[in-house]
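Morning!

This is the sequence you dropped in the shared folder:
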Amino acid sequence: MSEDLVIGVDGLARPFWASTNAMLRDYYDSEWGMPVTGEQALFERLCLEGFQSGLSWSTILAKRENFRAAFCDFDPQLVAGFTEHDYQRLMSNPGIVRNKLKIRATINNAQATLDLRKSGGLSEFIWSFKPDSTPEPTTYTEIPTQSIESKALANALKKRGFKFVGPTTMFALMEAVGIVDTHLVGSHRRGSSGIWAA
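The structure's back. Tokens below.
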């Protein structure tokens, strides 16, 4: 078994990052890498991955409920209608990451999400970049940070008006929503999405 896997008190193998605290362990066990296809749920993940850029995921995860409250549960229809007053409200909210560019990008991306409805919608668009195969990493160093597909997705989203959607951020999104499976071989979650064989 990979030295990058840790056996928990429950006997299950997880990567080190998912074994450091209960919040990350629960996220890893029940959510990370499971298929997400709904527009609102995907919009949330897209926005949170953007906010995570340059920060640790645990910082974002700890603030997720605050983000949901601040951004109307990431309903793109509502967020697209945010005004300058809403922007100022968000910038003064200590419960979220108060980065002016990321907040502006989230409001912008809500409108871009609505625009995508004319051609199949956000879910169909993002999932169309699913690769033919997925990595099979046994160590952290074997996990890519981007891929041909994540670069293509980033470029395609930018052409549709999205911001904070670089190839590394989009690969993280693809991992989080099950488009690729980068669970380490030997982890109890490997293959659990039902999309990729264990």
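Headline: The first strand starts at residue 5 and ends at 7.

More detail when I'm at my desk.
O.
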